[in-house]
Batch of 4 targets.
Target 1
Amino acid sequence: MRISSAFVTAAIFACTFATSTVTQAQAKPGAAKGAAKKEAEPPPLPPAQARMWLIAPTVTGPWTLRIENEGSVAVRIPADGRLLRLEVHADEAKKPVSCTLPKSLRPSGFPEDRALLLAPGQSYVESFDPLLFCFGKNAAALGPNATVRSRFGWDPPKQKSKPKKPPTGPFAVESTEREATIAPLWELQAPAILLGPAAAPIAADTKPLPKDADSDTKPAPVDAETEAKPDSQEGAADSPKAAAPANAVPVDERAGRLELSSTGFVEASAPRTITVTVTAKNAGMRPIMVALRPWMLSFRIDGPQGEPQMCYGDNSRRVLPRDAFRKLAAGASTSFSVLLAEVCPRKLFTKPGLYRVTASIAAQEMSSGTDVQTTELSARQPTLVRLATADDPFYSEPPKAVSPAPVEAPGD
């Protein structure tokens, strides 16, 4: 029997297709079995065991920041208190006040020059002024019974899905191991603290007991006639304190008097831009004749350098003409805006940070034939200057780790 070539070709194609189908069917179970053998994803690493405290012995500072490595492996932290962020709850009925340094003072990334390695048990301790953070109108939130919550570092990034690559930071705490056994932390949070309360006032109708009084001692009986007569009237004519001395000099409580004040807060980008406005006011009830000039002013500078410094105006005494004096009515004032770079040496503002500038005035100039007011006085409150940039860095020394104090065994 003769078989056509077309039929043979068709048969060969059918066999080939069937073999391919069988091979693919046999391959599917093998592929699924191989997928099952894939290694499961490793469990997430435990977080770094670091703890932060904020210690505030007084309302206005200085306060202390402490970061301790409580884990079993060394960690790396940015030892830079400028990374703090404070949240002050002064009134439960109002929103909390957020106190953060401006971008010009706060590090934008990880400050490599402040990198510090903490061995297990070691700590980093830094003292800081809370008014550097709660500046301007936010400073009013720092009061008795206010609750302070603090964070250190950076906000974690907001991600909707799991990232394909591990994050690169910057981190507040990270491992120093080549193969990390702990997960890094974007930020640290300290337990909330309560600022000290104000002293409780003594009630008006309460009289303190004498120092040697016994709580169980009962008061002696008082005669009804004596009790009805007030102590202020009894023996008032016979009391030597009731009558003023014959040679006493009367005091004019309505006389004019000067009071000095200055700008509360000043934000300065550089030392050459620090400008303080000083105001002299007649706080009395009568007018006075005065001659006030900017060169009479001097300033006390308390800053990050430590020791207070002084910059003086022209303190030389001189006689001014009569038309240099003017009458300052009761309640009236005069002000001067002083660029401190023009009166103070440059070395007084060499570091960024918080400065307290206290203004004083020495108005001792006289004029013949004129009854003038002469005085030397200082402002009651200093001007707080927050300086963003200066010639020297914010920190003058590299950070250091603090080891825990050794525990001594008790003696015999």
Target 2
Amino acid sequence: MDFIPTTVAGLPLHPLVVHFAVVLLPLAAFSTIVAIYIPRYRKGFAFASVFGLFVGTGAAIVAKQTGEKLAAQIGFPQNHANYGSYLQIAAIVLFLLGLVWYRSFKSKPTIKASGIGHLTALVATAVLVLTFLTGHTGAEAVWKNRLASTDQNTSAQKTSGTKKYSLKDVAKHSSSASCWSAIDGNVYDLTNWINRHPGGAAVIKAICGKDGSESFNGQHNGQRRPADELKNYLLGALS
């Protein structure tokens, strides 16, 4: 969907639109379940629930597309992307089932939940779970490492930032258990970043024990956020 913009007023569109998906979609899914199993709420909740599913599904689709565009610029949080794909599919299925259920309910009102109602409720439950997982992995990709490492790395930078290391020192740490890399004249311990890297663990493993300047600069091309993230793992200067 190339017609969807990447930014709005200078801000990435993805984190803006994703709030519609993670708030409206689960709200509509929950109210759909309520309407299916509590007959007295069905009349008041049914239409609003299906309409909410329509808007929430649209938001999920836009969030997925804008997320892919944002990932192309700053890196790819794989778990978040996977859950986003599953959520998009589940939301579409839920909206279609909800529409069928609503038309069935309107044409043949009944107190008991129908077969299509049970199926709709099941998919709605899946949407609730996937919404949580998508939102959680997205927040984790943005904040977990930043919050967890701020204090310890600030201290580490004060004590070890003036130390110097050679490429021979770096070469001794060439595995995922202890991964050092030299980038632009500095040495970094990337061990804890391997499984958190938005672009995948293999990218970091490829530069363990060696000078990763070319790989880092080729991937990020002077982007500010990756450079700021890298500072958290500074050991010292390359001698």
Target 3
Amino acid sequence: MAILTLRPRRWSRRLCLILLLFYGLPLLGSTGYWLLADHPQDWRTARRDSTSQAPDPRYTREAVLQVYAGRAFRWRGIFAVHTWIAAKPTGADHYTRFEVIGFGVAEGAPAVRVRPGVPDGYWFGSRPTLLRELRGPQVDGLIARLHAAAARYPYNHEYRLWPGPNSNTFTAYLAREVPELGLDLPANAIGKNYIAGGGLLTTAPSGSGMQFSLYGLLSLTLGWGEGVELDLLGLAAGLDFNRPALRLSGVGRIGFTD
């Protein structure tokens, strides 16, 4: 009888240790990093200017498509990033940003914002990370499909910070609609696992695997682009075998990049 009661205790201890290592400690580290960093006091004066990561359209004729992720504003940056897509067709003199913004949605403003803008700007003081870049004549067709997909997004008048639909839900939706992007969103892109339309099973955002998700609260992703990722209540952890790396809540990614 003692043996039977000992085994469950061992498993519970191991489970607690796994949760601590892959979910708790990374989130604690992200909190420490956020507390030590400088933050703008007011969103009106926070930096939104270019970080010089996007090719200057005045001197770049070819089509360019980029995906960025910047730490969310204020305390939300501990947990998550905000993602968007910037695109410039061949010969265009400006970039168009594809993103969802929650500000004003409750008062009737649309969540989807597809408009000219700074492609690589600071996100309210946070320098964004370039996640993906495509260039060349084939990009023009992808940009046209992004416009069509954005017009079909089912949550244009709905926004929830957690578990979604939010800005990362939109970026993941576009990635699934245009799988040629091959987009691997980081583990701290909370909302990416909220499946548009309310389904339980769909393709992974990278287009290279499958994803099960229960309204973004519990999800499992298996794919060549993402590796293995388990999301619990918006906190994700996993392993990337294609480009060896850890995928951690709050942190995003630690390991090799493209």
Target 4
Amino acid sequence: MNIAPYIDHTLLKADATLQQIDTLCKEAYKHGFASVCVNPYFVAHAKNWLKNSEVKVCTVIGFPLGASETRVKIFETACAIDSGADEIDIVINISAVKNGDWFIIYEELNSIAEICHANEVTLKVIIEATLLTDDEIARASAVCTEAGAHYVKTSTGFAGGATLEHVALIKQHISSDVKIKASGGIKTYDFAKQLIEAGASRIGTSAGIQIIEEANQ
């Protein structure tokens, strides 16, 4: 399997440097990864580095807790798009999920989706599946679909990682035009391949080079 086009080459560490972002972009360009995923501070820099390539620039919103006010997430999204982001990975309001505040969740995600759709930007919603029950995963996945998300994403990687079971469960509760991004704890080619076979269309990982090397073997 040519796994490179599935990979969002990710560096979201708090102490990331410009030199590390340059390396990330260089690796993504060399291997033909789907995107680089960086914190908002680095979006403009990554966009400039990759301006003559097909590699997308992805960034995170409301990361990693999802607890920012809706107006803050909206403003953060608009700023990221203005800086050149091609893809937005936004963390769902996890507390609202736990409280069963589904209308609030829908309104927030739909507001973000409208901005993304208007700017032809891909929207991925991180539901942080490891913190949710199966019923909450199912409902959250359905609400993401209804609100206009392009992807449902399993995890931030800060509270646990992707599982085959979560990917399969999400797949059952999204429409055919919504995709899945598996993220968190994906360190090997075999696991990445299993997640893709389970239904994931993107793999978010900081181990993209290791995965490619294993695939080539």
